[in-house]
């Protein structure tokens, strides 16, 4: 199963979406990077650092700006009908998801899958490579939900 398909299935598991959003919104983590690390079973510092570098650049160029627009469009805007605004918001959401898919598929091409790291170890490695590591209990919650 490819990384995108795996991520969709994983994200649909009970507790995964909530754990991912907590890591993203409360702890500044990058969800695609975290999910890729678990999928790839990646713990190798060099590979994870390269993945974080690619993720940081793509996040800055595409994902973060699209997410900001989507979130801005959530609130009503004067002179713009709600239906038109919501329709545009859905288009932006689709573009944001496409940008995340491009990122995940790019990360999947960086190196071999099945590095052997358990989910928690892969999450810890990705979190460290991203920057300020997330609290251990937040990473453990995601790891548990993914099992």
Number of strands: 0
Structural class assignment: mainly alpha
Query: How many DSSP H or I helices?
Result: 7
Mean pLDDT over all positions:
96
Helix content: over 70%
What is the general shape? elongated
Largest sheet: none
Strand residue percentage: under 5%
In N-to-C order, the SSE pattern is HHHHHHH
Q: Extract low-pLDDT stretches.
A: none
Gap from first CA to last CA = 17 Å
Number of domains: 1
* Radius of gyration computed on alpha carbons: 16 Å
Overall description:
The protein is mainly α and 147 residues long. It has one domain (3-146). It is 74% helix and 0% strand. It is built from seven helices and no strands. It has helices spanning 3-11, 16-27, 31-40, 45-72, 82-108, 119-130, 136-146. Helix 3 (31-40) packs across helix 6, helix 4 packs antiparallel against helix 5 and helix 4 (45-72) packs across helix 6 (119-130). The mean pLDDT is 96.
Quick take:
Helices cover 74% and strands 0% of the residues. The chain has 147 residues and is mostly helical.
What are the defining features of this structure?
147 residues, mainly alpha, 7 helices, 74% helix, elongated
Secondary-structure blueprint:
Layout lengths: L2 H9 L4 H12 L3 H10 L4 H28 L9 H27 L10 H12 L5 H11 L1
Helix pairs in contact: 1-3, 2-7, 3-5, 3-6, 4-5, 4-6, 6-7
